Amino acid sequence: MNAGADPAPQRYRGRFAPSPTGPLHFGSLVAALASYCDARASGGEWLVRIEDVDAPRTHPDAERAILAALERYGFEWDGDVVRQSERTAFYRSALGRLYAEGHAYDCACTRREMETAPLAASGERVYPGTCSEGIPQDRAGRAQRASRVRVGAARIAFRDRLQGLQTQELARDVGDFVVRRSDGLYAYQLAVVVDDALQRVTHVVRGADLLASTPRQIHLQRLLGLPQLSYLHSPVVINASGRKLSKQTRAAGLPGVAPPVLLDAWRFLDQPLPDEKWMPASVAQFWSWAIAAWRPDRLPPCAMLPAPRRFEGSAPAKV
Question: pLDDT tens across 73-83, in order?
Fold first, then answer.
């Protein structure tokens, strides 16, 4: 490469990162489909990462069931599956750097004490900085301590590919946030930033329920000297009561017949169809057509949408 020439653009590298707390459900499928199509339509790679950093919530058989469902529905990932539970040393190293550079501190506040903290417009509790200048005397004897990252006067602005310009003043909207819990487990915000950097992820396509977390992750990227990613937050699938389809709301697992369910997820994302009555004959036929037809500019620019009626049920389906 000639001196002074612009560096070659990075190849698109996306990922899907489910938590093994239950079976893959329709909401998970929608997120996976958007991520997969966006990566493959761009000629990029697509990784699978199991986000099992929250060990108490992990179900022993959930990972196997999730990976089996992804295979049954025709998803093909690049490289080996990565598990957060095997990457503690990387998170410890990143946290050590944050402490060494004065960006992190110990916090002895309890959850009950946080219940009296002020509420932000998002409904989250804003940490009032109780331990930011040292742990108060009345809490100094507590053995369990979390690690928090200082936000200072950080104002994070980024342009989401679907949701548009997003801004967040971290001190006002979040406060200094936890990166290691008082039980010693590393928090999602730190783990996901470290993993994305180590896996050389360039693009993140995920549900809009994580949109408010993105400024915290960008803040950590900047503190750790890591590249900022491209983000697209697609609509979250909700049930009839307005709650997100999730393992916590006992969303039904995916049925065994894949092509019609993939087509339901495709329609949910308002993607173009060759014919309203079209039904792919196989999973392979669906993906061959869908990747070529993917139109991210057609995605509904909203935070949530109701699930098709047959996926609203709360009884787990047999997979």
Answer: 999 999 999 99
